[in-house]
Amino acid sequence: MIELSKLNNIKFIINCEQIEKIESRPDTTITMMNGHFYVVKESIEEVIEKVIKYKRSFYLQKGD
């Protein structure tokens, strides 16, 4: 789960395991596997960094 910001600055959490694609249109648009999509303030690179950080923390916990 990662925290993102809508264009009106409202924070929300998405399940990053359900992301199908991330596009720049020019706003960053995240399309989920169920077809829903979200337009967020973060850049594609920031979203990817958040996903990587989340997955690292998840797998580090599994290794304990």
Q: Please, could you describe this protein's structure?
A:
It is a single chain. This protein has one helix and five strands. With 64 residues, the chain is α+β, with helices and mostly antiparallel strands. It has one domain. A three-stranded antiparallel sheet has the order 3-4-5, with no helix packed on it. A hairpin with a 3-residue loop joins β3 (19-24) and β4 (28-32). The longest helix is centred in the C-terminal third of the chain and has 19 residues, at 44-62. The radius of gyration is 12 Å and the shape is globular.
Calculate the mean pLDDT score and round it: 94
Fraction of helical residues: 25-40%
User: How many angstroms does the end-to-end distance come to?
Assistant: 20 Å
Order of helices and strands: EEEEEH
Strand order of the largest sheet: 3-4-5
Oligomer: single chain
> How many β-strand stretches?
5
Structural class: alpha+beta
Low-confidence stretches: none
Proportion of residues in extended strands: 35-45%
Counting DSSP H or I runs of 4 or more residues, the number of helices is 1
How many domains in all? 1
The Rg value, from CA coordinates, equals 12 Å
Largest sheet: 3 strands, antiparallel
Shape: globular
Task: Offer a few descriptive terms.
two-stranded antiparallel sheet; alpha+beta; 64 residues; 30% helix; 3-stranded antiparallel beta sheet
